[in-house]
Each structure stands twice: as C-alpha cells, then as structure tokens.
Amino acid sequence: MGEIRHHDDDNINHHIKKPKLTQTLISPAQILTEFAHHAPETARINNGSFGSVPNTITTSQRQFHLKFLSQPDQFFFNTLPKQILTSRKLLRSLINADDVSEVALVDNATTASAIVLQNVGRGFSEGRYARNDVVVMFSCAFQAVKKSIDAYVRRAGGEVVVVDLPFPVREKDEIVNAVIMPVKELVKVCREEGVDRVFVDAAHAIGSVSVDVKEIGADFYVSNLHKWFFCPPSVAVLYSRKDVAEDLHHPVVSHEYGNGLAIESAWIGTRDYSPQLVVPDVFEFVNRFEGGIEGIMKRNHDAVVEMGEMLAKSWGTSLGAPPEMCPNRFGVEVPIHYQPLRDEEAGPRDQSGGFVTGYARISHQVYNTVDDYIKFRDAVNQLLRDGFSCKMLIPREE
Fold first, then answer.
1. pLDDT tens for residues 214-255?
2. How many structural domains compose the chain?
3. Is residue 246 part of a domain?
4. Rounded to an integer, what distance in angstroms lies between the CA atom of residue 297 and that of residue 208?
C-alpha cells in the first residue's frame, strides 16, 4: 500500500498556475447566474453564517470530485498534495505570512480553536504553564471556542477570565461581535501585559477586511474561507507564527504526524478535500469584480451601511455600531421591543433588570439587492402587527 507524502518544497510544484487577471468584468446578469441556485423565495441576508458559493466554484469542485472518483490513487498521490500547496501559497500572499509553512488549511475556525487550545492544554500538563494560570477571552467569543477552553484549559488546571463587552457599540473602544475589532491594538495590549500566546478567532475576516498577519502580530490567527471568500464549506486558513508553531498538531493523527501542522492538516485520511483545492479558482472568481476582493469588500460595506440605515430610519430605531466599524454585517435594532417608559409605566425586563430589545444582524454579499432588505423590513412589520415582542424571548422561570 502506498503512502501519501506532502511536502512544502517548492520544487515539487514550481509551475504554480497564477490566478487569471480577467479583462472582462462580471456583469449583474452574470452575478445572478452565478447564484441562481439560491432559493428564489428567500431573502438571503445572513451570508455571515454559512457563506455562499458561485456556480463557477461548485463546477470546479465537481471536477475535483470526478478526478478522485475516476482514479483515486492518481488523485491522492499526485493531484492532492500539489493542489493544496498551491492553495496555501496563494493564501500566504493574501495574508502576508512570512512562510508557507505558517499557513495550514483546516475545516473551520472551530477546528483551528481545538488545535490551538489543545496545545495550551498540553502546556499545563508539560509544565509550560502553572496551575491557575489564566486564559482571557471576550464574552462575545463563539460558543465552540468557549467550550474548547473548558475542554482543554479548565480541565488542565487553568483559570478563565471573561471580559464583558457592551452592546450597542458607540466607538471602537467598545468591541463586540459583528463589528470590526481593533485586533492590532488588542494584540499590542496583550504583549505589553506579558501575555504568552495570542490567538485571534477572526472567523469572518478574509473577504470582509484586509488581513496582514505580520502587522497584527498574533501568534495564531484563523479565518474561514467559506463565509466571505466564496469557498465551499468548509475550509479555513490557520496561521501559526513559525517560532511558536513547532508543537502544534492536528487532533486527527495520521502518518504525517510530526511533519508540521500544515502537512498534518493536508492529510487526515480519506475525505473530501475539494473545498481546499478550489482556492485558486476562487481567486480567479473575485478578480472578475472591479477591484478584486478589495472592491468587493468596499461595495459590501457601502451597501450594508445603506441598508442598515434604511431599516433603522423606517423603524425609528438605532444602529448597533458606527458604520465605519461594520464591514459587511450590521446590527440594526428591530422595533419589537418595549416603548420608552412614560409616566412610570412598566416595560419587559430581562433577569438583570435591563429592558429587553432585539437586534438583527444583516449581511450583504454581491448577490444581494434592495428587495431582499425590503422583504425583511416587511416581515418584521408583520410580526409587529401580529403582536410579537422581545419579551417572548425571555426564558420562562420554572
């Protein structure tokens, strides 16, 4: 039986196909065609959760499926290692990493969190960290990250400190989910305070904001590629700075164990690797838009701000953050909340005594139109007419 070997040696793939610089820009009609598989009766304004995949990319993905099905040995022994390396090299340039060995492709940000926090947990058992050493995280952390900290850090003897963040946000000193966090500044504070390792879970970053991992300065940084970079689900890029990455390992152990995280992640047994393989095609797709991915990010930002302000004005409500802090998602207060108190009247309150309000997180991607947000506005208005209130969201006491 053969053994698949992955290497980061440029010599095995020195003729890397660069993404084409398309001369003809994509038209509105072509955009509609690329996303024609979307359910026509649904206004998709939640791109941030699961992303979207153009037909061009699903076609490329299907070609990789057929290559595997037609000749698995040829695919796994030759096509797969070279194509994954090509994808990693393109992403290395996109995020400005020093070396391709710092760039690993994993399933998603949840997997990346497990990889990093597993390493932290081993640090306690191996004596790098002492019992009651502290991991600091924000209250807005993704639930899977919080659970990973419990699984790998608390059980190993570490303590966890949660920093509460306010909402709505009025300035960049107040940071929370769905807005651009001042990551570079936060990493700088961590360094000044002697924090040993910094991990940034930037699940939405690539395709939303420009990413320069050297400028950010974190030890570990992850971003999904299926949320805002048009890759099929699921794939994420995990950056690990070379001088701290030596002891990182993928939790699924294969014969590549010990060859570095990027190589370990490139082979975790027989499975579908196609989301990692279509990355070059995604680069070509975004280059069909004026300004490439930077142009897409600007248009999404401008559009989501316009739609958020339209909704807030229509409902007479507030925005969840300053527009400049919202890349392609925006928190908009919905009018299914208490009315301001008049003459000592009572309003619905949560368990901490605060008034209950509701915010909707809207997203904008290249396929969205104004009609999508009008449908959403009208649906919320219908809830109002039906008597819905955020009071209904309060957990009932047993």
1. 999 999 999 999 999 999 999 999 999 999 988 899 999 999
2. 2
3. yes
4. 6
Cα–Cα distance for residue pair 10/319, rounded to 1 Å: 49
Domain end point (choices 231, 256, 284): 284
CA distance linking residue 190 with residue 293, whole number of Å = 30
Q: Are 201 and 113 in contact (CB under 8 A)?
A: yes
Other C-beta atoms within 10 Å of 51: how many?
21
Assign 165 a pLDDT band (cuts: 50, 70, 90).
Answer: confident
Q: Which of 284, 303, 328 is the last residue of a domain?
A: 284
Q: How far apart are CA 205 and CA 223, in angstroms?
A: 6
One domain for residues 113 and 253: yes
Q: Report yes or no: 388 and 343 within 8 Å, Cβ to Cβ.
A: no
| 268 shares its domain with 133 | yes
Of 251, 237, 242, the residue nearest 203 (C-alpha): 237
CATH number at residue 155: 3.40.640.10
The model scores a pTM over 0.90: no
184-203 as b/e: b if 16+ CB within 10 A: eebbeebeeeeeebbbbbbb
Residue 162 in this model has a pLDDT that exceeds 60: yes
Residue 14's CB: how many other CB atoms inside 10 A?
7
- Give me the amino acid identity at 130: A
In a domain, 219, yes or no: yes
User: C-alpha dihedral over 131, 133, 137, 141, to 10 degrees?
Assistant: -20
Q: Parallel, antiparallel, or unpaired for β 329-334 and 358-363?
A: antiparallel
Instruction: Supply φ then ψ for residue 247, to 5 degrees.
Output: -100, 15
Residue with tokens 């769905």: 178
- The dihedral through the CA atoms of 113, 275, 231, 15 has a sign that is positive
Q: Tell me, yes or no, whether 229 lies in a domain.
A: yes
Residues 204 and 328 in one domain: no
Q: Are residues 263 and 352 in the same domain?
A: no
Asked if residue 34 belongs to a domain, the reply is no
Mean pLDDT of the residues in the chain:
87
pLDDT at position 391, please?
64
Range of the domain at 101: 73-164+196-284
Tell me the C-alpha distance between 279 and 19, whole Å: 10
CATH number at residue 380: 3.90.1150
